[in-house]
Amino acid sequence: MEILGILIPVSLFLGGIGLIAFVWAMKHRQFDDLDGDANRILTKDWDDKPRP
């Protein structure tokens, strides 16, 4: 049971880091190009072989 004294703060700290990273990504517009990703699936430009 003493391990919970270590695991709970560590898990809260790591969860906080994840939340901060998510908020940073939202503020820097990392998720704004949804149409580009949807259209990229339909093109055959970058199929199996990358361009030289």
Short description, anyone?
The protein is mainly alpha-helical and 52 residues long.
Question: Helices and strands in order, then pairings?
Answer:
Layout: H1 4-27, H2 34-42
Low-confidence stretches: none
Order of helices and strands: HH
Largest sheet: none
Let me know the number of strands: 0
The overall average pLDDT, rounded, is: 84
Number of helices: 2
Q: What shape does the CA trace take?
A: elongated
> What is the CA-atom radius of gyration, in angstroms?
20 Å
Content of β-strand: under 5%
Helix content: 55-70%
Structural class: mainly alpha
What is the CA-CA span between the terminal residues? 58 Å
Tell me about this structure.
This protein starts with a helix and ends in a 10-residue tail after the last helix. It has 2 helices and no strands. The model has no long low-confidence stretch (mean pLDDT 84). The chain has 52 residues and is mostly helical.
Summary tags:
mainly alpha, 52 residues, single chain
